[in-house]
Amino acid sequence: MLDPEKIIFHPGTNGSIGETIRQVKVFQDEFPVLFDLAVMENKPKVGLNGSFCTGASPEEMKDILDQTKLGFCLDMGHAIFYAAWKGADYHDILGQFVKLEPDIYHLSDGDFYSKKDMHLNFGKGNFDLVKIISLIPPHAHV
Q1: Span 94-113, pLDDT tens digits
Q2: Domain assignment of residue 116, yes or no
């Protein structure tokens, strides 16, 4: 009804990648026109209510994307929160996600030291937005 260019889906919480893939395939068969517009967005490892999210790591997202053939929305903040949870360098994690060739980049501000999603307005957190934005290819959909 709103004629969106893309429809963003999340892999879920407290479940498995296998179940996410199974459900996507069922919906792809039932709603092919809708899923022609679908992209899957990565999640932080820890959700707002403390649940554990699926699709948080680059490896999990690659598995989902390879098996469902969906497009990819890279939520930069979610990737940074995943890196904090894992104790990994956020720049390295973002680089691994960028290699998955996102269709859309989702930007927000946040706290580098948090493991939980926050989606702060620009300037309200401590993300190095200049460095993060430098990872986005020219002419990307942001």
Answers
A1: 999 999 999 999 999 998 88
A2: yes
Distance CA 131, CA 65 (A): 26
Could you tell me the CATH number of the domain that includes residue 82? 3.20.20.150
Burial (CB count <10 Å: 0-12, 13-18, 19+), residue 42 = buried
Residue 99's alpha-carbon distances to 54, 123, 136, in angstroms, are 19, 27, 11
**Cα 104 from Cα 92, distance rounded (Å):** 19
Helix (H) or strand (E) holding 81: helix 76-86
Question: Are the beta carbons of 106 and 76 closer than 8 angstroms?
Answer: yes
In a domain, 1, yes or no: no
**Can you tell me the distance from the alpha carbon of 114 to that of 83, in angstroms, rounded to the nearest whole number?**
10
